[in-house]
């Protein structure tokens, strides 16, 4: 098994226009796809996980890259079952036809309709590379990282998209904070082509440090930052059960506290709103 710490990720090859066309339907910019292309090309992963699928443009791109390696597996997870942009389209629809062509060389499993860890029993081998592009709001990516960490191989690679989104939308800092909390060897390329974020790239990676348990408390404490949305009791139980199998009681207590704290704040705000209307 290749030690990713020994690979030189400091120089990147430019992506061709033909390769870019394989990502039809993606929301990622050229530089973002070029970053993923280089990581996959150099790391030669066998097991890749994608958290956040949407239309499936990036999924199609990943399938094409993995098809060059052969005997690879891609596991894709999305909370939704239909696309946010058009609910008539199923999650991942852009990749369906292409997968029919290459399915003999790449195994693709798509899971939708719940928290990723709800389906993690199907991931039977350590994950080499995980790409996260999900909620862009607390507690989204914080939970995603904590969900996937127990499945990562030693010195596996996590790639996070939209790490610069807060430069356009000040509230969308979740991916940036989540990435900052991870320990390991940084995979970062300055954006020399320019976009809405100036020189700052909107995608970044990290080769995880050996001792993942040392990251646990800081990662769980990220959950105490203000939540931009609620998770249902069903989703909470799903995540709680998964975390209970892999983290200490101290970590679980932080998760439980954070969930209750922001749930109660929402209830209090709703009560105040109702009282205001009554008055």
Secondary-structure map:
Layout lengths: L16 H4 L9 H14 L3 E5 L5 H13 L2 E7 L14 H10 L3 E7 L14 E6 L7 H9 L3 E10 L12 H8 L2 E4 L15 E6 L4 H9 L11 H14 L2 H30 L1
Parallel strand pairs: 1-2, 1-4, 2-3, 4-5
Antiparallel strand pairs: 5-7, 6-7
Please sum up the structure shown:
The chain is an alpha/beta fold. The chain has helices at 17-20, 30-43, 57-69, 93-102, 140-148, 174-181, 213-221, 233-246, 249-278, and strands at residues 47-51, 72-78, 106-112, 127-132, 152-161, 184-187, 203-208.
The dominant shape is globular
Mean pLDDT: 93
Physical arrangement of strands within the biggest beta sheet: 3-2-1-4-5-7-6
The helix-strand sequence is HHEHEHEEHEHEEHHH
Kindly estimate the percentage of residues that lie in beta strands according to DSSP. Answer: 15-25%
- The value of Rg in angstroms is 19 Å
> How far apart lie the N and C ends?
68 Å
Helix fraction by DSSP (H/I, runs of at least 4): 25-40%
Low-confidence stretches: none
Query: Mind describing the biggest β-sheet?
Result: 7 strands, mixed
Strand elements, count? 7
Q: In terms of structural class, how would the helical and strand content be classed?
A: alpha/beta
Tally of helical segments:
9
Which short descriptors sum up this protein?
279 residues; alpha/beta; 7-stranded mixed β-sheet; 40% helix; globular
How would you explain this protein's 3D organization?
The protein has helices at about 15-20, 30-45, 55-70, 95-100, 140-150, 175-180, 215-220, 235-245, 250-279, and strands at about 45-50, 70-80, 105-110, 125-130, 150-160, 185, 205-210. β1 (about 45-50), α3 and β2 (about 70-80) form a beta-alpha-beta unit. It is α/β, with parallel strands linked by helices and about 280 residues long. The protein is built from 9 helices and 7 strands. About 40% of the residues lie in helices and about 15% in strands. The model has no long low-confidence stretch (mean pLDDT about 95). Strands 3-2-1-4-5-7-6 form a 7-stranded mixed sheet, sandwiched between helices.
């Amino acid at each position: 098994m290749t030690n990713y710490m020994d690979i030189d990720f400091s120089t990147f090859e430019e992506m061709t226009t033909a390769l870019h066309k394989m990502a039809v339907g993606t929301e990622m910019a050229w530089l973002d796809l070029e970053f993923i292309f280089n990581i996959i090309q150099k790391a030669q992963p066998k097991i890749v996980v994608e958290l956040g699928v949407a239309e499936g443009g990036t999924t199609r791109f990943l399938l094409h890259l993995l098809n060059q390696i052969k005997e690879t597996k891609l596991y894709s997870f999305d909370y939704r079952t239909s696309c946010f942009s058009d609910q008539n389209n199923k999650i991942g629809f852009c990749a369906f036809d292409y997968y029919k062509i290459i399915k003999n060389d790449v195994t693709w499993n798509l899971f939708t309709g719940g928290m990723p860890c709800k389906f993690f029993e199907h991931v039977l081998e350590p994950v080499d590379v995980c790409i996260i592009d999900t909620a862009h709001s607390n507690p989204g990516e914080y939970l995603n990282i904590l969900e996937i960490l127990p499945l990562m191989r030693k010195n596996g690679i996590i790639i996070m998209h939209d790490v610069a989104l807060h430069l356009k939308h000040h509230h969308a800092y979740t991916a940036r904070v989540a990435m900052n909390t991870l320990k390991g060897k940084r995979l970062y390329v300055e954006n020399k082509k320019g976009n809405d974020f100036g020189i700052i790239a909107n995608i970044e990676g990290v080769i995880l440090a050996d001792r993942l348990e040392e990251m646990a408390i800081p990662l769980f404490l990220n959950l105490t930052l203000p939540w931009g949305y609620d998770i249902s009791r069903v989703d909470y139980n799903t995540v709680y059960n998964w975390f209970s199998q892999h983290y200490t009681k101290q970590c679980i207590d932080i998760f439980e506290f954070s969930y209750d704290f922001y749930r109660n704040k929402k209830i209090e705000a709703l009560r105040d709103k109702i009282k205001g209307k009554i008055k």
